[in-house]
Task: structure prediction
Amino acid sequence: MERITLMSVLLTVVVSSSPRQYHFVNQKKNWTEAQTYCRDKYTDLVSINDMNEQNDTNQLLQRVNISADRVWIGLQDAWVWSLNNSDFYRGDESQFRKWGPDQPNGDGDCVYMKSDGQWHDMKCDTQTHFICYNGSSKGFVPVQEQKNWTDAQNYCREKHTDLASVRNETENNQIKNIINQNLTSPNQAWIGLYRFWVWSDNSNFIFNLWKSGEPNERATNYRICASTGISEGGRWTDERCSVQHLFVCYDDKLVLIRENKTWSEALRYCRNMSMDLVSVDSEQMQQRVMNVTSSALSDHVWLGLRHSCTVGIWFWVNDETMCYDQWASGYDTGLDDCDTTVRSGVIRKNDNRWISRPETDRYNFICIK
Ligand SMILES: *[C@@H]1O[C@H](CO)[C@@H](O)[C@H](O)[C@H]1NC(C)=O
Ligand SMILES: *[C@@H]1O[C@H](CO)[C@@H](O)[C@H](O)[C@H]1NC(C)=O
Ligand SMILES: *[C@@H]1O[C@H](CO)[C@@H](O)[C@H](O)[C@H]1NC(C)=O
Ligand SMILES: *[C@@H]1O[C@H](CO)[C@@H](O)[C@H](O)[C@H]1NC(C)=O
Ligand SMILES: *[C@@H]1O[C@H](CO)[C@@H](O)[C@H](O)[C@H]1NC(C)=O
Ligand SMILES: *[C@@H]1O[C@H](CO)[C@@H](O)[C@H](O)[C@H]1NC(C)=O
Ligand SMILES: *[C@@H]1O[C@H](CO)[C@@H](O)[C@H](O)[C@H]1NC(C)=O
Result:
C-alpha cells in the first residue's frame, strides 16, 4: 500500500531550482584552504548568483554575529580565453601560457603578444592590432586595424569565430610569425586571453556586488579573491588570496528545511525540488545529518524512514535496505500500534538517536540531492 502511495507522489514531481544550506566556518584560512575545506565537508565555497543568495549570506553572517571581519566567498580571478568552448581544447591546452619575464605585471586585464612571441598584460582600452581565429578555415587571421580589446573581440566574433586562443608552442609560433610578417608596426597583437572572475563552483559570473572603487587589486604574480562582510549590505572587496579570513560554504546535497510539515508533505516538498528525504546509510552520513539537525527549529527532524505494517519492516524512501541504524535504545522494528497510525522515522535533536513518530506529526526535515 505504502509503496503505491510513494509511487504516486513521485509522478507529481515538479522541478524547481535546488535550495542550499549555508555554513559559516569560524576558522581563518587562506582562500585555497577555505575552498578545500568546503569541498571536503560540503559542496563548495559559497557562490552568489543573485540578490537572494547575497541576502541569505548576509542573514547568516548577522545570525552568527561576526565582527567587522571580511569573509571569503568563492570568487577568484583567472586568466581565461575569450573562446571558451571546452571542445576546442584537448587536455591542458586551455592552460598553455607564454608570459614574458615578470609578466603579468599588473598593467591591465587583457593580453597581447609581442614580436618575440611572449605575452604581456595591458590595459584593455589600448588600441592595437589583433589576431582572430577562424573556425571554418581553422586558421589565424591578422587584422591590421587597431582596436581596443573589446572591440577586437566583437570584430572577430562577427567576421570569424573569436579572438585567437593559443593552445601550444606550435600555435604560438604560427601567431608570432604572422605578427612579424603580416602586420605593420607596432609588431604586436591582442590575443583572446583576459582576466575575469570565476566562481569556485563554476557557476557563470552574472551577478556582482562590488563596493565602489572595487575591485582594485592589480593582477601580478599572485591570485586575487573576493570577500563579503557585515557592512554595506555585504558589498564585496578584492584582496590577495593568501590572506586568512573566515568563510562561508554551501551545501546543495543536504538541506535542512526549517518548516514544520507532516512526513508525506515533507517527502513531496523534497521531491518537488528534485531531491529526496534523506536516507542515512553510514556513520559518515549520520555525522552530516547531525550537523544539519543542530540548527533545526523543531526538536525532531524527519528522515526518509518509513514503516510498512503490511510487511512489518522499516525501509528508506530511496529503496535502500537498512544496513545501518541509530535507533534509540528500546526502539526496534516491532511496533504494536500498527493498526492505528502509520509511523515514520525522525532523528531526535537532543541525542541524535532515531525514534518513530506518527507520520501526521509536523517537524522540520532534511532533503538530499
Ligand atoms: C572600446 O572602444 C569602444 C568604442 O569604440 C568603447 O565603447 C568601449 O568602452 C571600449 N572598451 C574598453 C574596454 O575600453
Ligand atoms: C572565416 O569564416 C567564415 C565563416 O565563418 C568564412 O565565410 C570566411 O571566408 C572565413 N574567412 C577567412 C579569412 O578565412
Ligand atoms: C597544437 O594544438 C593543435 C590543436 O589542438 C594540434 O592540432 C597540434 O597537433 C598541436 N601541436 C603540438 C606540437 O602539440
Ligand atoms: C602572411 O603573409 C605572407 C606573405 O608575406 C602570406 O603568404 C601569408 O598567407 C600571410 N598569412 C596570413 C595568415 O595572412
Ligand atoms: C512545487 O514547486 C512549485 C514551484 O516552486 C510550487 O509552485 C508548487 O506549489 C510546489 N508543489 C508542491 C506540491 O509543493
Ligand atoms: C560536524 O560538525 C563538527 C563541529 O561543528 C565538525 O568538527 C565536523 O567536522 C562536522 N562534520 C561534518 C561531516 O561536517
Ligand atoms: C515547528 O515546531 C516547533 C515545535 O516542534 C516550534 O517550536 C517551531 O516554532 C515550529 N516552527 C515553525 C517554523 O513553525
Residues 90, 93, 167-168, 170-171 surround 2-acetamido-2-deoxy-beta-D-glucopyranose (ligand 3) (CB under 6 Å).
